[in-house]
């Protein structure tokens, strides 16, 4: 049996469990059979884990859409953010959000010559 990675899915874990279970059933002592309640309980736990994985994936999709919608709502608005000069001085800079694009799953805002993440924004004006 292969070693499980920390990111193994419920389906792959369940398949490994089923393989192990079939092997145990084939080689069990007929005078001491496996406990059916324990097997049913473990299968129910795998089913719950699969449902949680599905919910987590769906929630991640909803969150991504909400973040994109929020980023797009900033187009045309004036935002303030901190910039750093060549000498290391920090200044508050403002500008109008001209464009939004996605890179590596992150929404980036184009403000003049700057590219910002939503986390870089200090304030928003209409």
Task: Sum up the structure in keywords.
SH3 type barrels; 2 domains; 2 helices; rod-shaped
List the helices and strands and how they pair.
Layout: H1 10-27, H2 36-73, E1 78-84, E2 90-103, E3 106-111, E4 114-117, E5 121-125
Antiparallel strand pairs: 1-2, 1-5, 2-3, 3-4
Helix pairs in contact: 1-2
Structure description:
By secondary structure, the chain is of the alpha+beta class. It is 44% helix and 29% strand. The mean pLDDT is 86. The longest helix is centred in the middle third of the chain and has 38 residues. The protein has two helices and five strands. Helix 1 runs antiparallel to helix 2. It is rod-shaped and about 80 Å long. A five-stranded antiparallel β-sheet has the order 4-3-2-1-5. The chain folds into two domains: 57 residues, no CATH class; 52 residues, Roll (SH3 type barrels), CATH 2.30.30.140. A hairpin with a 2-residue loop joins strand 3 and strand 4.
The main pleated sheet reads as: 5 strands, antiparallel
Fraction of residues in helix: 40-55%
H/E series:
HHEEEEE
**Strand residues, percent:** 25-35%
End-to-end distance = 60 Å
Number of domains: 2
Q: How many beta strands in the DSSP annotation?
A: 5
Strand order, main sheet: write it out.
4-3-2-1-5
Number of helices in the DSSP assignment:
2
Low-confidence stretches: none
If you average the pLDDT, what whole number results? 86
Based on CA atoms alone, the radius of gyration comes out at: 26 Å
| Spatial shape | rod-shaped
- The class by helix and strand makeup works out as alpha+beta
């Amino acid at each position: 049996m292969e070693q499980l990675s920390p990111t193994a899915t419920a389906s792959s874990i369940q398949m490994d469990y089923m393989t192990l279970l079939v092997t145990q059933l084939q080689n069990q002592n007929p005078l001491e059979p496996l406990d059916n309640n324990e097997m049913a309980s473990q299968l129910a736990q795998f089913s719950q884990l699969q449902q949680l994985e599905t919910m987590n994936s769906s929630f991640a999709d909803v969150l991504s859409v909400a973040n994109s919608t929020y980023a797009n709502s900033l187009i045309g608005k004036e935002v303030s953010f901190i910039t750093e000069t060549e000498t290391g001085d920090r200044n508050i800079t403002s500008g109008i959000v001209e464009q939004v694009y996605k890179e590596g799953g992150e929404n980036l805002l184009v403000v003049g010559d700057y590219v910002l993440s939503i986390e870089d924004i200090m304030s928003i004006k209409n």
